[in-house]
Amino acid sequence: MQRSTGDGFTASGAALVGRYTYRPDDDEWTWSDTMFSIHGFEPGTVVPTTALVMRHIHPEDVAAAWESRDALVERHEPFSFLHRIHTAQGDLRVVLAAGHLEDEGGTPVVHGHLVDITDLRQDAVHTEVDSAVGDFVEHRAGIEQAKGVLVQLYSVDADTAWALLRAFSADTNRKVRDIARVLVDAATSDRTPSKSGTVSADLMLERLYDTASATAPATAPAIGSAAG
Fold first, then answer.
1. From 1.10.510.10, 3.40.50.300, 3.30.559.10, 3.30.450.20, which CATH number describes the 2-116 domain?
2. Residue 223 near residue 168 (C-beta atoms within 8 A)
């Protein structure tokens, strides 16, 4: 087992976006610190395995989880999967997993991310009045377009798309409207995957993070400079 820290994703103070790799031939997982946090563990205190991952998934979502894994490993199909997990403390979380398979020197390796949207999705439902909602009101048209892009990428509803925007915003220390503009620009130039395309939603998130990093103001924390 390996633990990844500087993997292109930055901690925001809350466990939002985790990063992982998985080598199916050896059942070997590499988790970022945030992956451990989302599952309720201190970084490095458990060895991540497929059995451990499946034990934390809500029983009603386990069958779909195995189906996603089989589609990825056996048919090399990128996936996104909205589901529930139980943390080590027994808390129920709503998460979205995405991943894709790459051939690295003849060895299949899965690269992916896990987004914890539990609290953010509740905010969307209850329309919490805060700076993010203020951003939404002021830049509604662009943000609605970006939500549409995320609905397409992840096959989620509008509330979940809004939660994802807020998660990516918090995790990159960027405003929601800036993240929305990146997504809309990517969609306009056909740089987002379609449902029948070969590019995964996971790769789209990596591109989004790369773009946010490249365009971040000098005073902003560098993306990838912290664990998670």
1. 3.30.450.20
2. no
